[in-house]
């Protein structure tokens, strides 16, 4: 018997979809362990978000609502999360920038084992183990955590988002634990948000990624294609490093990991680090003028062509399809 | 300014697709792959060097940079290479990878921090073999220090650092006061990413990490390199995570080449049915 604690994540006052993937993991873990799952929300002014969270089938929604938690800092969040975690068997968050920042601190604070970025939960005889990618997705390890508390982050693209149901969970306020010395030496300054009117990269059913070959025409070439397909835009590390697009578009081992229904790699040669972020996509299309590019080894449909000609042609073809 | 840089060596990440999993799943076999420093840790070392110099005078170190690794005797070549790049001295904690997990490394580092009293501990945001991304955060928690993970820019202030962190949806800026832990992301080695108080803001570094000139490689042989045992640093060396087996990823086969955009759209619509 063991219960699961999901550490929820917010953006602009709403639950982020990363949370819904962590909830799906929690359902599976709770079933395997014969327990229940709760959601923990931290921040300030959480009433609306708590109502939203209460629709996700949790036993309880725990709310740590305090001005001191208004901007996320691991140093102020960790003491409260760790204090609540002690009553649970598993603590989970999505392996987003937030989860990856916070949960290792929770594990250290509670002297617990930590398994990052897991893609599958396995269960046998009331015990759970986790599958997780290593070596840029070129190997998977199946591991178990030996401490009483298990702390994990889950890969969003590997756990389908949980949908809200009809029942409403009880909402409970929880005490805010005092922060340590660390919190007094860190200050949140500002957040330079990248404007994005397209679907979230990690949630889109179609992703179009561009490489360095696009040069300064990165958006000029990709925007019309993304428009016609309602797609998110991603990029290779080389394109991000060269400054052709925002760094948070990076798809790869150390960027975003995506698994859409349809993935376009445009002007991307297919470095190992990039493949790690997209090779679970259902259908992969590549457009590259080099027929020997490694990306073709994992491509379903390859078009060897000059992308500056081929992409506009593709846009025209897709528009005819729509009409 | 005293900076402790944690370094790990990893199997050549550019050939990570050549790792082999034996049929019994007992290990990840990296035989045939050269060991390389974890790229993110190399960036951390470059960051430490930039923070302890005037960018126009990279041979003059203002402060001390200590590199530490947890590994067997042959990881000393990784430390010597870091010394040749500009670090002042090195510490090797004797251990094999299978005796370590992220929390244990963080506990070992905590003891080293108590001995060395650095202003900053720097390391890569993750090692690209285990891909866990844990040690920096865990160390900060064990020390009750502030941290800035996934750093893309760092500006030194009188009593701390202003750090631009790459997070989902943009760049988050934190200011942290010493002592603190910083883990670095890819773009920390861009030309204008790191400025010490000694480096003029108009100065631009070369993209990437610096190389060691031959004389420095010779000198590095004489720089101090201490060895410690894991048990000297941590009482309980038990692991919290236990790997039961390893698996190869599902194979993905190469598909077909199409002649033009029209054929591509036709295949996507009628064969793959994704349009």
Structural account:
The complex is a heterodimer of chains A (323) and B (275). Chain A folds into two domains: 4-184, HUPs (Rossmann fold, 3-Layer(aba) Sandwich), CATH 3.40.50.620; 206-322, Rossmann fold (3-Layer(aba) Sandwich). Helices cover 28% and strands 29% of the residues of chain A. Chain A has helices at residues 17-33, 47-53, 74-85, 97-109, 181-184, 218-229, 237-241, 272-275, 307-322, and strands at 4-7, 10-11, 14-15, 37-43, 60-65, 90-94, 113-118, 120-124, 127-134, 139-145, 150-154, 170-173, 186-193, 206-210, 232-235, 262-266, 283-288, 301-304. In chain A, a hairpin with a 2-residue loop joins strand 8 (120-124) and strand 9. In chain A, helix 3 (74-85) packs across helix 4 (97-109) and helix 6 runs parallel beside helix 9. Chain A is globular, with a radius of gyration of 21 Å. The model of chain A has no long low-confidence stretch (mean pLDDT 95). In chain B, strands 1, 4, 5, 6, 7, 8, 9, 10, 11 and 12 form a ten-stranded mixed β-sheet that branches. A two-stranded antiparallel ribbon of chain B has the order 2-3. Chain B is globular. Chain B is an alpha/beta fold and 275 residues long. The chains are: A alpha/beta (323), B alpha/beta (275). Strand 18 (301-304) of chain A pairs parallel with strand 14 (256-258) of chain B.
């Amino acid at each position: 018997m063991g219960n699961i604690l999901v550490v929820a994540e917010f953006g602009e006052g709403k639950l982020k979809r990363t949370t819904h993937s962590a909830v799906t993991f929690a359902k599976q873990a709770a079933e395997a362990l014969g327990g229940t799952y709760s959601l923990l929300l931290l921040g300030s002014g959480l009433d609306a978000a708590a109502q939203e969270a209460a629709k996700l089938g949790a036993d309880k929604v725990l709310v740590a609502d305090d001005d001191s938690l208004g901007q996320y800092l691991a140093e102020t969040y960790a003491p409260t999360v760790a204090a609540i975690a002690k009553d649970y068997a598993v603590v989970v968050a999505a392996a987003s920038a937030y989860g990856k920042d916070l949960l290792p601190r929770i594990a250290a604070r509670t002297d617990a084992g930590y398994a990052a970025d897991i893609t599958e939960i396995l269960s046998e005889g009331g015990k759970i183990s986790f599958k997780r990618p290593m070596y840029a997705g070129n190997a998977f390890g199946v591991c178990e955590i030996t401490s009483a508390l298990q702390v994990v982050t889950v890969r969003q693209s590997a756990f389908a988002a949980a949908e809200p149901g009809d029942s409403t969970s009880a909402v409970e306020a929880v005490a805010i634990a005092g922060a340590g010395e660390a919190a007094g030496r860190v200050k949140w300054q500002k957040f330079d948000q990248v404007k994005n009117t397209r679907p979230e990269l990690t949630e889109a059913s179609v992703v179009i990624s561009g490489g360095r070959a696009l040069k300064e025409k990165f958006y000029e070439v990709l925007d019309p294609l993304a428009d016609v397909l309602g797609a998110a835009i991603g990029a290779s590390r080389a394109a991000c490093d060269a400054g052709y697009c925002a760094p948070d578009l990076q798809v790869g081992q150390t960027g975003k990991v995506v698994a859409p229904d349809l993935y376009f790699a445009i002007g991307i040669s297919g470095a190992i680090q990039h493949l790690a972020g997209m090779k679970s996509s259902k259908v992969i299309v590549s457009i590259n003028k080099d027929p020997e590019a490694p990306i073709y080894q994992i491509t379903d449909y390859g078009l060897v062509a000059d992308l500056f000609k081929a992409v506009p042609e593709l846009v025209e073809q897709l528009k005819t399809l729509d009409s | 300014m005293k900076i402790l840089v944690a370094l790990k060596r990893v199997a050549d990440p550019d050939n990570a697709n050549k790792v082999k999993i034996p049929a019994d799943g007992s290990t990840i076999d990296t035989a045939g792959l050269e060991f390389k420093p974890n790229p993110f840790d190399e960036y951390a070392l470059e960051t430490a060097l930039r923070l302890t110099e005037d960018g126009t005078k990279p041979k003059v170190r203002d402060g001390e940079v200590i590199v530490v690794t947890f590994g067997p005797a042959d990881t000393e070549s990784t430390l010597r290479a870091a010394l040749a790049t500009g670090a002042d001295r090195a510490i090797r904690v004797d251990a094999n990878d299978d005796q370590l997990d992220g929390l244990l490394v963080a506990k070992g580092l905590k003891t080293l921090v108590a001995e060395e009293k650095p202003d900053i501990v720097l390391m890569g945001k993750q090692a690209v073999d285990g891909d866990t991304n844990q040690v920096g955060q865990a160390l900060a928690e064990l020390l009750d220090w502030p941290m800035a993970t996934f750093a893309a820019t760092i500006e030194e202030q009188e009593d701390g650092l202003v750090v631009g962190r790459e997070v989902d949806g943009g760049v988050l800026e934190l200011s942290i006061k010493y002592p603190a832990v910083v883990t670095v992301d890819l773009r920390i080695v861009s030309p204008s990413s790191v400025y010490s108080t000694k480096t003029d803001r108009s100065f631009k570094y070369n993209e990437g990490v610096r190389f060691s000139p031959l004389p420095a490689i010779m000198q590095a042989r004489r720089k101090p390199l201490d060895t410690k045992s894991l048990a000297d640093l941590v009482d309980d060396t038990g692991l919290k995570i236990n790997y039961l087996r390893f698996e190869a990823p599902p194979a993905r086969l190469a598909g077909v080449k199409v002649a033009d955009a029209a054929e591509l759209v036709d295949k996507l619509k009628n064969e793959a049915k994704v349009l």
